[in-house]
Model the fold of this input.
Amino acid sequence: MKLTQNYSANIRTGFLVLSAFLSLLSACRKQVRTDVFIAGGSTSGIAAGIQAARMGVDAVIAEENKWLGGMLTSAGVSAVDGNYNLQGGLWKEFKDSLTTHYGGDSLLKTGWVSNVLFEPSIGNRIFSNMAEKEKSLTVIFDSCVDTIIKNKKGWSIKVRNKLNNEITYYRALCVIDATELGDLAKLAGIEYDIGMDSRIDTGEEIAPMEENDIIQDLTYVAILKDYGRDVTIARPNNYDSSLFACCCMNKLCTDRDDKNRLWPAESMISYGKLPGEKYMINWPISGNDYYVNIIEMNRDEREKALIPAKNLTLSFLYFIQHELGYNTLSLADDEFSTSDRLPFIPYHRESRRIRGKVRFTVNHITHPYDQPEKLYRTCIGAGDYAIDHHHGRYSGADSLPDLHFYPVPSFGLPLGVMIPENAEDIIIAEKSVSVTNIVNGATRLQPVVLQIGQASGALAALSVLQKKPVEEIAVRDVQNVILNSQGYLLPYLDVPIDHIWFRPMQRIGSTGIMKGIGKNSGWSNQTYFRAEDVTLTSDLAGLFDIYDVSPEDIETGSDTLSIRRAFEISEIVTGRHDSLAWVKKTEQLRSLTGCEDIADAERPVLRGEMALILDILLDPFNSFDVDIRGNFTKDE
Done:
């Protein structure tokens, strides 16, 4: 009996020791489960996290630095490019928060490069406040992903805290790469491209004949503050005034043929003037752009390679102070908590670009309806900025195509660019989506990237909620989330987002039944549905792609359609006839639209009204799903 008691005591002691060891091991190897894991609290990363959390799934953002917002905040690019007239979704929510903070839209127009300028720290505060309101969203800072592995139960992610090397393991059903350079995509084994594509490969006439690994210049932005006294910094190492001599009109610029076309020094400084008497210095003309390709480097190599980029910006600051006489301006002491007062990260204009389910080319932008893939039917966001590439600091820039504000119309961005070709349950956001190098010059801008993030969060949440792989989520489901979030699918400028025609036009345009017209006008890229134009029979050619009808079925002898004929066409394409249809349908439309003259049967129907009629009576958007390339996949 005594032996048994001693044996039992030893067992208990051993169990306690084992339990203590396992507890210690567990403490050292913390495991956290979440529905969605987002690598990067970047411009797209914060949008993805907020959207996923608002749909009721648990989301974790792991950000390498101390702020949220990426290029808008951590990189100091606090002058928004484009989409001033296409404000929707989280982009509009962010912009409206800036308006509220500063006291009005006009108070955001402090510089001439943008209609929306703000202090980076305020942008970070707004994103942080938005994140804090979402109970399902967790944000961890100073953290980077070391490894990521896919298994039957989802993704296993090893995250390291950069400050204390503490390791946390996350298990997630779906992951989103919102890093600045597509680092998670590489860790996950996803195929990607870097640099310029071949014209032969993409079919883009303005692409170079042969591919290369040249990317756009990056920039260490400087946020300057007026101190009201001489605050000239010490002369930086290897300072060379000739690098900046022709940044603006000044006595040092003597060797440039077009020097008379340069901006005055005052205009260069006020280019990015921010509220609070601060100035964003992100100047591409012999300024602080810097060429280096750090994409494939490890973190230590990147840090070393970026030292000259920082020095160039400090040298440019010294030039502004010493040579141009702005000696009361210097790096703001109330923006970034870095030792050198420069932003946490440089402004990366280009990163890895994955090989996705589709690849968005400039041809899809310039001629969306003429391409084999009908990607316009799958869009989840809109952009209107020009194709703008920065190559001024690359030594061989003269041999590259001229991609500085190449004219294109505005565009819708297709969902498939975020989904890798050969991977499951991983979504790629930020600037690493599946677009060509040329198109990246337009899709890299902040409002577009915010929309990419919001759509990636919606896609991830739908995958979790529907218990389906990302690749099986219906395009229309994602698009409906975007529309319900007051977002754009296509860049129609005709009516504001709260107009009764807005969503019908977005939906009907996304079926191709009626098509918009895009154009370029100087720096302005536009697309119109032509909502106020009278509807012609020829405007409805897209019906034949969906319904079993022929042109003869809707011909009237007159190309102009009346409201009565619009109703009759809805009966023709559905094969449903009702002698009381006119009364019932007009009452339904009058109730929904508040338009009393909708019953005026013989008056011409406007295109916006026609979209509304088709949307209400036929609902082709929700009745006919499309695949990732825009092909219709089922009958009504």
Notes: DSSP finds 19 helices and 21 strands in the chain. The longest strand covers residues 167-177. Residues 196-213+352-496 form one domain. The chain has a mean pLDDT of 91.
